[in-house]
Amino acid sequence: MNGKTIGKFLFACAGLAAFGVAAQDRGAGQSIKQDAKAVGHGVADGARDIGHATRDVARKVGHGAKEAGIGIGHGAKKAGVAVGHGARDGWNATTHAVKQVFD
After folding, report:
1. What is the 3-state secondary structure (H, E, C) of the chain?
2. Distance CA 51, CA 70 (A)
3. Residue 55's pLDDT is what?
4. CA distance 27 to 9
5. Which of 22, 24, 60, 95 could be joined to 28 by an S-S link, Cβ 3.0–4.6 Å?
6. From CA 101, how far away is CA 12, in angstroms rounded?
7. Rounded Cα–Cα distance for residues 96 and 88 (Å)
8. Phi and psi at residue 65, in whole multiples of 5°?
9. Cα separation, 73 vs 86, whole angstroms
10. In terms of C-beta density within 10 A (0-12 exposed, 13-18 middle, 19 or more buried), how is residue 32 classed?
11. Contact indicator for 23, 32 with CB cutoff of 8 Å
12. CA-to-CA dists, residue 97 to 2, 9, 86, 94, 102, angstroms
């Protein structure tokens, strides 16, 4: 272990010792527990809010993708029908022109 690691270890031990002394005092221990509980509730509330926001964004993205897919699908259908009608009209015009030339 190098000096840096030993320093960190000693600092952590000192912090734990201070926490142990504070925990022995009933008033301080209760205050620490209440503070920890309040922090825990705050973290849980924040996590819940983040989860709800993530769900809402995912739902909006999903619905947007669905709408885009439907729009693209309908556009492709209309384009296909138009190409088919154009090809039929072109064929009809070609056969009519050939009949005019050879009749």
Report:
1. CCHHHHHHHHHHHHHHHHHHHHHHCHHHHHHHHHHHHHHHHHHHHHHHHHHHHHHHHHHHHHHHHHHHHHHHHHHHHHHHHHHHHHHHHHHHHHHHHHHHHHC
2. 28
3. 87
4. 28
5. 22
6. 101
7. 12
8. -65, -40
9. 20
10. middle
11. yes
12. 95, 96, 16, 5, 9
pLDDT of residue 9: 63
Q: pLDDT averaged over consecutive 10-residue blocks of the chain (103 residues)?
A: 62 62 59 80 84 86 84 83 85 84 75
Amino acid residing at 84: G
Size of the chain in residues: 103
- Can you give the pTM of this predicted structure? 0.40
Task: Give the position of tokens 């009809």.
Answer: 92
